[in-house]
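One thing: can you check what follows?
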Amino acid sequence: MVKKLPKVDVVIAGVGWGGGIIASELTKQGLDVVGLEKGQERKTEDYYMVHDELRYAIRYELMQDLSKDTITFRGNERMRALPMRQYGSFLFGDGLGGAGVHWNGQTFRFLPYDFEIRSRTIDRYGKDKIPSDMTIQDWGITYDELEPYFNKFEKMAGISGEENPLGGKRSEKYPTKPMKHSPQMDMFKKATENLNYHPYTIPSANLSEAYTNPDGISRAACQYCAFCERFGCEYGAKADPVVTVIPVAEKTGKFDLRTHSWVRRVLHNKDGKANGVLYTDITTGEEIEQPADVVVLTSYVFNNVKLLLNSKIGKPYDSATGTGVIGKNYAYQVVKGAASGYFKDEKFNNFAGAGALGMVIDDFNGDNFDHSDVDFIHGGYLSLTQTGQRPIASNPIPKGSPVWGKEFKNNSLNYINQTLSVGAMGASMPYQHHYLDLDPVYKDTFGDPLIRMTYDFEKQDRKLANFTAKKSADILKEMGADKIDSMDELGPYNITNYQSTHNTGGVIMGADPETSAVNNYLQMWDMENLFVVGASAFAHNGGYNPTGTVGALAYRAAEGIMKYHKNGGMLA
């Protein structure tokens, strides 16, 4: 028998960055909020002196148990989708804070071009520049409209950085100074300046100095220990929801956080409004109904889509006709356009670093360069990052080297501190045949259908990857590398090799209910008291890490929820 609890103002499904921001903002204004998180509770003390590469980076301690919930994958609709049973291309965070705990901290703002990508591309190059099956669309919001929310997120997180010379205009400087520069970073800076590019220090959620944010949360500076990505921060120096927004919500006394609570359905009335959620307490197996005036989905991309489809909310996307919106415009990221340089006479302390330590250029990102003579749109940033080369997973060797035996060992030891890489974070454009839907065969541990992902790299991606690989090699040559290996060809998408955890789309935002699922407050067109927050709202994926844009949209959604709570109706 389902247990029904008393009604609250707001219930949140998933307590990571999106859920933490929503909870913090709403409880500060007096709303009663329940936060449901299917994983365990976490705190900074959990990571004291736990620099364990095997446990966290190799065995994925902070990630979701794929035997209980995963996705299925196929490269195209002619293939049978099969479950992802071991981690590869991307990693699902699990537990309080979600992926916001194990991220590396690189915190960019999407470019003004991103939010009006279709209009701006057509204005500059004409409609023929966009392939007929590429489904890019404007986001229903401009950079200038979103800029105050970027600023709010950066102040909360204490982002350390300097102004991007090719980015959107800022209303204020970053709240803390840029991270320290290593010799490698200075080499990249000098080389890119020699090539007439515009380098700047990567904006970092790894604090460059002690900082107290507007909510009164104080955190210590980064120690450059290099255990950031796939790890929790033992110092609290890396901004994550557990050390920033969640404590603020809890301090109000208006936030009821329930871990081990697996949300399975959004409940809704015949009048077209949500009235709460159904979840399972995974410690007892008990099914519980939590009524609420407003429901907010703030889980990871795949789960936001899964909840909507399993709850029969919104029109599922149909790839044959291009109609429907739930599952539409899934996009990933093109991160293969990289080059490695081997330095015969120089050694670097590559073991040191931080998740967001590095230098970057945006000369080939967005529409910052003329695309008339290239067979793709958008682009990506090029960067040299020093995130720390940990011993188990770091074996940089030149192409053609043996992959086992004496020579492999000698090359590994020789090049571990004599190799630098310049990588690309390439944008990913949506296509009519890239989407998410419910798998007709495979189910999760509770018998609910899994999300099925249909995706592959396209000509656009291959051209972009080749372009950025050549530019990366040029930078390494200018840096003085004696030998350079760069990518020759981007092959089919391979879900077994790690690339990034930057999945986007499926519940996209826009100005038209026919082509989008949510408006620019992330309010569902089809259900006015349901908000869907996260990278699932991205109509495409830009040439950056997505967290800064996720955070900005979450702050705007929180504002929208308050407006809705007071006045009701669809928000303008």
